[in-house]
Amino acid sequence: MTRPPAEHVHWLFATGVLLLGLFLLAEAIVGTEAWRRRPWRPYLWPSFAFLLGTLMWLVMVSFTSSTIHMLAHSAWAQALMLAGAAELGLVRGKLHSPLWRLATPFAFFVSGAAFLVHEQNPWFFQRSAFLHHLMGWTLVLGTSVVIARALRPGRAAANAGFAILFIALAVMLYSDRDTAPVFGHLDPLAGEPRR
């Protein structure tokens, strides 16, 4: 059995990340009070984040080409599971300290750092290298939006910014291809472009 190209796995995770973003955007648009009229809705994004973290373990085991990739994928898995579990605990009422809200910004920062460490090639080596750098810095810098959301959970702007971060990440993941030029440039060491 042959493994699918890494870009297919990126696209599957992009779908999950896009769904996360759309759940969060819907909540930001209608407001938390209206969103929580259905008792199952508050559990959507945290449980989906936890599920994506669990699935990331499969990626770590099945699609790892080096130790640095294995460490990065395991860091993403743990960060997603931590954020999902903390948010689930807060929604369920099992966790009471507001400090648990900082688990999600921590997960964003760890994920961004993992993206940056994970990519060993320069920005313009090829498209996937560019996107890994872009996603890493988006997550690292976007941590400020997530901290604002954690400190002021009712703010519509912070909630919308949080949702837009997920949607932007999904677009970047959908743009990923294993060997493809970025802005018309492809490093000769990258190999032949795949179409």
Give a written overview of the molecule.
The chain is mainly alpha-helical. It has one domain (6-182). It has helices at residues 6-30, 32-35, 44-62, 67-92, 103-118, 127-151, 156-174. Helix 1 (6-30) packs antiparallel against helix 7 (156-174) and helix 3 packs antiparallel against helix 4. The chain is elongated. It starts with 5 loop residues before the first helix and ends in a 21-residue tail after the last helix.
Please tag this protein with its features.
single chain; 195 residues; mainly alpha; elongated
Brief write-up:
This protein has 195 residues and is mainly alpha-helical. The protein has one domain.
Quick check: average pLDDT?
85
Number of helices: 7
This entry's quaternary arrangement is single chain
Cα distance, first to last residue? 22 Å
Overall shape: it is: elongated
Number of domains: 1
Number of strands: 0
Gyration radius, to the nearest Å? 17 Å
Q: From the helix content, strand content and strand pairing, which structural class follows?
A: mainly alpha
Show unreliable segments.
none
Could you describe the largest sheet, including whether it forms a barrel?
Answer: none
- Which sequence of SSEs, written as H and E, runs from N to C? HHHHHHH
- Strand content bin: under 5%
Helical content stands at 55-70%
